[in-house]
C-alpha cells in the first residue's frame, strides 16, 4: 500500500481508506487496532480552546501546553506500545530513526497533521541521546509534541524531555532528549476500554476504495499534510480520542471542575462562528450523517423546537465537545443562546437538553 496514493473516484488517500473504518455505530476505528477510536474534526477549534482555557482560568499557555504534552505522551505511549511491532523497534535501534520517520511523515500527511521531517539524531547510530524533528503547519503543536515524546519513550524505554521553538510562522523545531532513567512497565499501560453499543448507520461506500463517499467533501493536500472541508475551508485532522480524553481529564485534575464548562463554552463559540445556519437547521438525518462522518457517535434521537432541543447520542466521543456543539446548533437554529443540561446514562448514551 502506498499511503499517499489518492483514490481517483473520491480523492481519499489509501492511508485513510485502508487503515480506518467508519462503523455503523457512529465511530471511526483503526483497522489494525479496533480499540483505537478516532474523530475527524476541525483542528482550528483546539487553538481557540487552549486560548479560552488560559483566559478564563488564568493559566499561562506554556503551563497549559506542559499539561497537554504530558497527558498526550502518556496516551501515545500506551497506544504505540500495543501496536508497534518488536521488529520496528529493533529497526529503529539499528538503522536509526530515519526509517521510522518516513512512516511517521507519511502518516502525518494523510491524517492532516502537517509536514513532519526528521532533523537529525545524535549519535547517528545506536541509542540516540537526542532526536530533532521539524513540523510545518502542525495541526496542533502541543498534541504533536506529546506524540513525539511518547514515541521516543516507547522506542527507548526511557523518560525523555522535550523543547519546542518556532522557526518562523509555519515551521517549528522540536528536540527530544532521551534520559537515563528507565521507564517501568506500568507507565505503558493506561486506557480503560469503553465498550460500544451496536448501531445501524449505513454510509454509501465509494465504489472504488470503500471509504464513505461523504469524504469526497474534504480535500487532501498531501504535500503539506492539510485536509480541508471543501465548502467551509475549515482545516480538519484525525484525533485519537484516548489522547484527547487524557488531556481533558488531566486538565480537570489540575485546574478543577471549572475546566468542563470552559471546554463546552469554547466549542459552543467555535460552532456559532463556523457553522452555517442552514447546517444547524438541516435536521436529524443530516446532523446524524455529519456526526457519524466525524466519528463523534451515533445520533439516535433529535428534537428541536424554539423552546427546547433534546438529543441522545450513542457512543459519544468527548461529551464536553458534543454538548458545546449542541449548544451552538441550538443558538444558530433558534437565534437565542441556550442553557444546557446533560447526563451520561448507565449504558454510555449522552442525553442533552437545551432550553433558551
Ligand atoms: Zn474512493
Structural summary, described in words:
This protein is α+β, with helices and mostly antiparallel strands and 356 residues long. The protein has helices spanning 14-17, 44-57, 61-83, 86-95, 97-111, 141-156, 241-255, 259-274, 277-280, 284-293, 319-334, and strands spanning 20-22, 28-30, 33-42, 115-122, 130-136, 158-166, 171-182, 218-221, 226-229, 235-240, 298-305, 308-314, 339-344, 350-355. The strands form 3 sheets. It has a 6-stranded antiparallel β-sheet with strand order 1-2-3-10-9-8. The protein has a 4-stranded antiparallel β-sheet with strand order 4-5-7-6. A 4-stranded antiparallel β-sheet has the order 11-12-14-13. A hairpin with a 7-residue loop joins β4 (115-122) and β5 (130-136). It starts with 13 loop residues before the first helix and ends with a strand. Zinc ion is lined by residues 7, 9-10, 12, 206, 208-209, 211.
Radius of gyration: 20 Å
**Which series of helices and strands comes N to C?**
HEEEHHHHEEHEEEEEHHHHEEHEE
Q: Order of strands in the sheet with the most strands?
A: 1-2-3-10-9-8
Large-scale geometry: globular
H/I helix tally: 11
Which fold does the CATH topology of the domain at 35-188 refer to?
Answer: Muramoyl-pentapeptide Carboxypeptidase, domain 2
Q: In terms of structural class, how would the helical and strand content be classed? A: alpha+beta
Average pLDDT reading: 89
The H-level CATH homologous superfamily of the domain at 35-188, spelled out, is Trafficking protein particle complex subunit 3
> Which regions contain 5 or more consecutive residues with pLDDT less than 50?
none
> How far from one another are the termini?
51 Å
Largest sheet: 6 strands, antiparallel
- List the ions, cofactors and other small molecules found in this model: zinc ion
Number of strands: 14
CATH architectural group of the domain at 35-188: 2-Layer Sandwich
Considering DSSP H and I runs of 4 or more, what fraction of the residues is helical?
Answer: 40-55%
Strand content: 25-35%
Amino acid at each position: 500500500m502506498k499511503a499517499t496514493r489518492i483514490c481517483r473516484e473520491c480523492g481519499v488517500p489509501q492511508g485513510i481508506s485502508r487503515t480506518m473504518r467508519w462503523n455503523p455505530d457512529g465511530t471511526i476505528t483503526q483497522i489494525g487496532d479496533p480499540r483505537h477510536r478516532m474523530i475527524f474534526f476541525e483542528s482550528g477549534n483546539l487553538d481557540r480552546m487552549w486560548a479560552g482555557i488560559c483566559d478564563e482560568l488564568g493559566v499561562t499557555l506554556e503551563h497549559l501546553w506542559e499539561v497537554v504534552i504530558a497527558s498526550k505522551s502518556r496516551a501515545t505511549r500506551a497506544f504505540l506500545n500495543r501496536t508497534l511491532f518488536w521488529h520496528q523497534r529493533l529497526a529503529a535501534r539499528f538503522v536509526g530513526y530515519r526509517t521510522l520517520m518516513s512512516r511517521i511523515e507519511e502518516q502525518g500527511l494523510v491524517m492532516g497533521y502537517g509536514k513532519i521531517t526528521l532533523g537529525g539524531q545524535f549519535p547517528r547510530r545506536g541509542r540516540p541521546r537526542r532526536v530533532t524533528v521539524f513540523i510545518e503547519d502542525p495541526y496542533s503543536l502541543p498534541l504533536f509534541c506529546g506524540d513525539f515524546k511518547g514515541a521516543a519513550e516507547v522506542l527507548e524505554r526511557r523518560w525523555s524531555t522535550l523543547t519546542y521553538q518556532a522557526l518562523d510562522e509555519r515551521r517549528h523545531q522540536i528536540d527530544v532528549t532521551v534520559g537515563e532513567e528507565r521507564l517501568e512497565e506500568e507507565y505503558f499501560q493506561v486506557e480503560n476500554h469503553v465498550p460500544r453499543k451496536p448501531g445501524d448507520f449505513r454510509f454509501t461506500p465509494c465504489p472504488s476504495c470503500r471509504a464513505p463517499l461523504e469524504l469526497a467533501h474534504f480535500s487532501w493536500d498531501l504535500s503539506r499534510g492539510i485536509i480541508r472541508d471543501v465548502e467551509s475551508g475549515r482545516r480538519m485532522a484525525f484525533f485519537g480520542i484516548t489522547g484527547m480524553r487524557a488531556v481533558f481529564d488531566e486538565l480537570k485534575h489540575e485546574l478543577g471542575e471549572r475546566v468542563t464548562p470552559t471546554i463546552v463554552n469554547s466549542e459552543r463559540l467555535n460552532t456559532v462562528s463556523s457553522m452555517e445556519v442552514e447546517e444547524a437547521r438541516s435536521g436529524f438525518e443530516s446532523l446524524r450523517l455529519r456526526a457519524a462522518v466525524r466519528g463523534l457517535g451515533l445520533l439516535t434521537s433529535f428534537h428541536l423546537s424554539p423552546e427546547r432541543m433534546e438529543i441522545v447520542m450513542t457512543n459519544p466521543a468527548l461529551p464536553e465537545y458534543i454538548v458545546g456543539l449542541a449548544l451552538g446548533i441550538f443558538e444558530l437554529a433558534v437565534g437565542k443562546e441556550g442553557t444546557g443540561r446533560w447526563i451520561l446514562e448507565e449504558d454510555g448514551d449522552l442525553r442533552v437538553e437545551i432550553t433558551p
